[in-house]
Design goal:
Number of strands: 14
Strand order of the largest sheet: 3-9-8-7-6-4-5
Structural class: alpha/beta
Number of helices: 20
Helix content: 40-55%
Distance between the termini: 133 Å
Oligomer: single chain
CATH topology of the largest domain: Aspartate Aminotransferase, domain 2
Largest sheet: 7 strands, mixed
Radius of gyration: 37 Å
Number of domains: 2
């Protein structure tokens, strides 16, 4: 009790001392506050003394903030329509989702039902899974231009590589997907074409889809041939660039558009004053079999300050003395082509694609090429197959290319003798399109009026079926009708190979002649 009392007396005696000690701190705080207030007031007076506009602007800003905070907020539910349970049930009952895939038309269903299945490996001779006759037929429907698809030597070496590289990398090139054979093939392709550098893509279609949007953006300009294939069309669409189309292989029309584009850019200022400008075309056109006049394209490129993007998917390994493509065909320096796109799945018989360009442009694609950054790299077995095919072509180009051109010229000559047909494509192109001549359609009977594209497609399908009975496999050229910018005329596409013999080429021409004669005679 004495201890508690003494503590209480001490506390009562100490409280006046604490109160006195707090007085200086409160006085110091008040002094600091007064000083700060005076400083702020002096700053405001000095700041607004000679600047009435600033005072007005900030008063307006404060007024806007007060108005915005005070105004009533928008209520999302104010405009909602209240439905009864019965109305909700009726709407749910009536709702039908849009199909993910559009329903097939009658003709598309017919085409799918008649699809040809190959039993066994592909090549110049194949066996068909359908039909009682299991004899091999001559294959003139495959892009096997040099016969590498069924080459036993290339196949044996590729199979041996499975022990070292397996069946795939399972990763993009920039993320554990690059093998030594990838880097070797890139150097080999660049050296074969004669360009500075090359980059590999795992798929031919995505090569084109990646390269063009990688360099041509929304504010840039593309002037493209209206006859380019579907992959190039889609790549141009993905670029979101401003696009001008010139008539197929018409250099006068191309020059007219280039002049107009440059006139539109005169006097432009600002961010988009100097857009990138590209001419986009193919080397060997898939849809027509024509060849681009590269010398004139290069001349126009320099005259009007454009860059060239050349898709050599079907000309690489086919055109030129060495098979190096369009630049080899016209003996033009490959460095004149700013971006040269090629495929390894057609003439070379492997898979994937590539782009040849200056080193800086190639390195840019390793960071910005969508197909390179986000797709698994090419399997080692296919990379080795492509390298071996290019080695074989380099070692003996004459044996492959001379025979290919002889076969193409021979078949084209024989087909031109068949009445009622129109033969399209360059003279030495191994891609040949045969179409029904207009007078042939006039002589053929059709109930219901004029011939439609579907009607002509049906006739050409019958022609291919009749040729198959004679031991020759042909195919009607098919397109994504709703997405083609200009839908090509109906045709049968014939692909010649250097592995075909002279007799086999003659047999193909004879089968086409007999098939056309039988089909057209039935419809007269």
């Amino acid at each position: 009790m004495e201890t508690v009392a003494s503590a209480a007396s001490f506390a009562s005696s100490a409280s006046p001392v604490a109160a006195v000690a707090d007085e200086p701190s409160r006085g110091l705080f008040r002094t600091a506050w007064d000083f700060s207030f005076r400083m702020v007031l002096r700053y405001i007076k000095n700041s607004y003394k000679d600047d009435p506009f600033r005072t007005f602007l900030e008063v307006c800003l404060i007024g806007f903030i007060v108005w915005y905070m005070a105004k009533p907020k928008y209520n999302i539910g104010t405009n909602e329509i209240e439905l009864s349970e019965k109305e909700i049930d009726e709407l749910v009952e009536e709702w039908r989702p849009e199909p993910l895939v559009p329903a097939l038309t009658e003709f598309e269903r017919e085409t799918l039902d008649k699809a040809i299945m190959i039993d066994g490996p592909n090549g110049t001779k194949v066996r068909l899974a359908s039909g009682s006759n299991n004899k091999p037929v001559l294959n003139f429907a495959s892009y096997n231009f040099l016969g590498f698809v069924d080459s036993p030597e290339l196949g044996k070496h590729a199979v041996e590589s499975l022990r070292k590289y397996g069946v795939g990398t399972c990763g993009p090139p920039g993320f554990y997907g690059t093998l030594d054979v990838h880097m070797e093939l890139e150097k080999q392709i660049a050296g074969f074409i004669g360009h500075s550098a090359a980059i590999l893509y795992s798929q031919a279609f995505t090569t084109t889809l990646s390269v063009i949007p990688c360099f041509s953006k929304r504010s840039d300009i593309i002037v493209a041939d209206e006859g380019v294939n579907f992959a190039v069309q889609q790549a141009i669409f993905l670029s979101r660039s401003k696009v001008y189309w010139y008539k197929h292989n018409d250099m006068a029309d191309l020059e007219r558009i280039l002049k107009d584009v440059n006139k539109q850019l005169v006097g432009r200022r600002g961010k988009n004053a100097l857009p990138r400008k590209f001419i986009v075309t193919e080397g060997l056109f898939q849809n027509t079999g024509d060849i681009s006049p590269l010398a004139q394209l290069v001349e126009l490129k320099h005259r009007y300050k454009f860059r060239i993007i050349l898709d050599e998917s079907f000309s690489f390994g086919v055109l030129g003395k060495r098979g190096a493509g369009l630049t080899d065909h016209f003996n033009i320096d490959p460095h004149e082509i700013d971006l040269l796109i090629g495929a390894l799945c057609f003439a070379i018989g492997a898979s994937g694609g590539f782009c040849c360009a200056d080193k800086d442009l190639v390195e840019h694609q390793r960071l910005s090429g969508a197909g390179y950054c986000f797709s698994a790299s090419m399997p080692g077995i296919l990379t080795i197959a492509a390298a071996d095919a290019i080695h074989a072509l380099e070692a003996d180009p004459d044996s492959y290319l001379d025979n290919l051109r002889d076969n193409a010229v021979q078949l084209r000559t024989l087909l031109k003798r068949i009445p009622g047909l129109q033969i399209d494509g360059a003279a030495d192109s191994p891609l040949i399109h045969i179409r029904l001549a207009p007078d042939t359609l006039v002589r053929m009977k059709r109930s219901g009026g004029a011939w439609t594209k579907t009607d002509i497609d049906r006739v050409l399908t019958e022609v291919a079926e009749e040729a198959q009975k004679d031991g020759v496999l042909l195919t009607r050229a098919m397109y994504v009708d709703d997405h083609e910018r200009i839908l090509p005329n109906s045709s049968i596409r014939i692909c010649v190979s250097s592995a075909h013999t002279r007799k086999e080429v003659e047999k193909c021409a004879h089968a086409v002649k007999s098939a056309v004669s039988r089909v057209t005679s039935k419809k007269r």
